[in-house]
Amino acid sequence: MHGVSGAKLKKARTELGLSQGAVGRALGLSSEFISLLEADKRAPSLATLNKIAAYLKKDLSYFFQEKEATFNIPSSSILQRFKRYCDDYLLLERLAGPGRRLGLEPLYTNISPERLAEEERRRLGLGDEPIRDIFALAELNGCRILRLPIPAASKLSGAFIFLEDKEAAFALINSADPPGRQAFTAAHEYCHYLKDRHEGPLIDNPDVFSDEFVSLYHPREELAQTFAACFLMPASKVRATIEKEFGGRKLTYEHVLYLKRYFGVSSAAMLRKVRGLGYISAAQHEDWLKLHPETREKEVFGDLWKEGLGRRAAGGRAVYSDRFRLLQLEAAAKTRRAPHKRKT
Q1: In a 3-state reduction of DSSP, which class is residue 280?
Q2: Fewer beta carbons within 10 Å, N or C terminal of the chain?
Q3: What does DSSP assign to residue 36?
C-alpha cells in the first residue's frame, strides 16, 4: 500500500500513550513490525491498516500522506470484483437448484500446522501423493476459488473471506503469479478456511510468503505457510522420491527443479523444503535462490511447468473454476426450461 505515513502512525500511537509493544500485542503483530511501519520501511496490508486505525481511534484517511487526500488503493477494484464474484457464485448455486450448494468442512482448532496437513490429507484420502489440482480440491471442499491477474502495485497475493450469514467461503488468488506460486497461495488460503474462517477477511500481501518477513505478521500467517508446505510437499513423499530417483546422491539444482515440477510448486518452495530436510546446505539454498529457475527449467526440460489449471491469466481476464462454469451452464438450462407465466 502506497502513501501511508509512518510519522502519522507514530503520532497517533504516542497521543494515546501507547508503546510499540502495546500496539503490537493488542493487534497480534510484533513490536518490530510496528517499528518498521513507523520508519516507513514496511507497508501495511489493507486489513492490518484497518485494525490499526480502529485501535488508535482514527479514520483510515488520517494515515495517508497529505498528497493523497483520498483513499485510493490500487487493489480496491480487484477486491470489488472479488465481492461481485462471491455474490454471483452464490446466486448460481441457488439457480442451479437443491444440492448444488457447497457445504463446510470441519473447523480445526488447537492443532499444529504439520498435524493439520497430515489430518486433512488423511480425511481426504490423499495419502502422501502430490496434489495435482489444489484449486479444485479446495473448492470441492467448500472454499470457492477465484483467480485474477493483480497488478504488482496492489501488493496483493491472496485473500480469504467467510460470509458468516451465508456460511460460504471464498479465496482470491493472484493469477499473474507463476503456477507454482499460485498453488502455494491456494494452499495457504485453504488453511485459513480450515482454521481461521471466523477471524474476518484476511488479505495477504507478498511479504506473507517470505521467510524473511512472515514472522512479523500475525502467527496465523506463519502457520498457514507451514501448512501449505506440508500439505503440498509431504516430507515422507519428498524423501521417498529423492531416494528413489537420486539414490541418496547429492542434490543438484536440476534435481530440485525436477522435484518442483513433480510436486507442482515454486522453485523457492521446493528449495525451502529440501533445505529443511537437510538435503542441501544453507549456503546452497541462498545461492540457488538467486538463480533464474525458468531459464534453467526450459533448458533442461524443454518447457516450463504449466499445469492447465495453474496457468497464468492474460489480458486482464479472470480464471474461473470448472465448477463455476458448470453452474453457469446448469442455471442457464434451468432458466430456459422454466415455464413462462401467462399474462392476464
Answers
A1: coil
A2: C
A3: H
309: domain range? 77-344
Q: Are residues 33 and 99 in the same domain?
A: no
Q: CATH number of the domain at 44, please.
A: 1.10.260.40
Q: What is the DSSP string of 183-211?
A: HHHHHHHHHHHHH-TTS--EEE-GGGG-T
CA distances from 1 to 5, 71, 210 (A): 11, 11, 17
**In 97-205, which ranges are continuous DSSP H helix?**
113-124, 134-140, 179-195
Tell me the residue length of the chain.
344
- pLDDT tens readout for residues 93-150: 988 888 888 999 989 999 999 999 999 999 999 999 999 899 999 999 999 999 998 8
* Block residue for cell numbers 512479523: 216
Q: How many structural domains is the chain composed of?
A: 2
Other beta carbons less than 10 A from residue 173's beta carbon: 28
pLDDT in tens, 161-192: 999 889 999 999 998 888 889 999 999 999 99
- Cell (9 digits) for 182: 499460485
List residues bridging with 173 in a β-sheet: 147, 158
Determine the Cα–Cα distance for residues 129 and 219; give it in Å rounded to an integer.
28
